[in-house]
Amino acid sequence: MVVVGWVVAYSYIQPLANWLTYGLFGLAQGSHLGESIAFFLYDVPKILLLLSGMIFLISILRTFFSPERTRKMLGGKRQGVGNVLAAGLGIVTPFCSCSAVPLFIGFVESGIPLGVTFSFLIAAPTINEVAVVMLFGLFGWKVAGLYVVTGLIIAILAGMLIGKLHLEKNVEDFVWQIQSSGGGVVEHLTWSDRLTRAWQSVREIVGKVWLYVIVGIAVGAAIHGYVPESALVGIMGKQAWWSVPAAVLLGVPLYSNAAGVIPVVSALMEKGASLGTVLAFMMSVVGLSLPEMIILRRVLKPKLLGIFIAILAVAFILTGYLFNIIL
Amino acid sequence: MLNIKILGGGCANCKRLEQITRKVTEDNQIEAEFDHVTDYAEIMKFGVMSTPALVVDGKVLCSGRIPTEAEITGWLKAA
Question: What is the ipTM of this complex?
Answer without folding.
Answer: 0.85
